[in-house]
Amino acid sequence: MKQVHLDVVGRPESLTVLAALAAVTERLGLAATVNATFNEPYEPARRLATLDHLSAGRAAWNVVTTSDAFTGENFRRGGFLDRSERYTRAEELARLSRELWDSWRPDAVLADQESGRFLRPGSVSAVSHRGRHFTVEGRFNVPRGPQGHPVIIQAGDSDEGREFAAANADVIFSRHGTLEEGRAFYADVKRRLAAYGRQPHQLKIMPAAT
Questions:
Q1: Are 140 and 127 in contact (CB under 8 A)?
Q2: Which end of the chain is more exposed for a tag (fewer CB within 10 A), N or C?
Q3: DSSP class of 83
Q4: pLDDT digits (tens, 9 = 90+) for 85-102
Q5: What SS3 class is residue 24?
Q6: List of residues 6+ apart from 117 with CB closer than 8 A
Q7: 8 Å CB contact between 55 and 22
Q8: Rounded to whole angstroms, what are the CA distances from 127 to 69, 96, 102, 130?
């Protein structure tokens, strides 16, 4: 019998749980951990946009990658992805998810009962993407959420993870527990933002509490 990680055994699918929580909460941010190594862009983007609507703009996506074969064996590709490839895939997936969300203009939904017209003409764009890991040709079918984009969170502390956060994330988790380590982490992740045309305030740091 193969050993499996105890932190995933018996854990239900996060977006389903958060959809239920959206109905009984009003002020909590609802952050789903969704794996970027084995998912395709369209479905997570669709589910996260749906959660944003159900929660009136409280959806967030904790983007994670994985290297374990236990997870990989549950998917057609199976096995491992090299570390650098995992973050290349995650970068493309996050970028393409934003493109899907942005394909609907904020004012796209007209919902005019008298004319019977649901959408404003020309307000939804087709997405055409051919990249290293994904090819998407079509139209996204969920209107733009209340936030525009769900909040993007990054939990990795590696160099690749910090670079991914600088390029894509709104929030990054920090596991560092001392003032010296925290200052070094802060300086490092904030300095990376300029390379992507971003300002320091555009990436928030959420430290661990132990």
A1: yes
A2: N
A3: H
A4: 889 999 999 999 999 999
A5: coil
A6: 110
A7: yes
A8: 32, 9, 10, 10
Nearest to 163 by CA among 206, 123, 193: 193
- The contacts found for 109-116 with CB under 8 angstroms, 24 or more apart, are 109/143
Answer whether 53's CB lies under 8 Å from 144's CB. no
Beta strand 109-112 with 171-174 is: unpaired
Query: Between these two residues, 167 and 156, which has the higher pLDDT value?
Result: 167
Q: How far, rounded to the nearest angstrom, does the alpha carbon of residue 71 sit from its chain's CA centroid?
A: 19
Q: H-helix or E-strand containing 94? A: helix 83-102
pLDDT of residue 65: 87
**Which of 12, 34, 52 is closest to 146 using CA atoms?**
52
Give the burial string for 79-109 (b: 16+ CB within 10 Å, else e): eebeeeebbbbbbbbbebbbbbbebbeeebe
CA 76 to chain centre: 22
- pLDDT tens track for 107-147: 999 999 999 999 999 999 999 999 999 999 999 999 999 99
pLDDT of residue 1: 46
pTM, two decimals, is 0.88
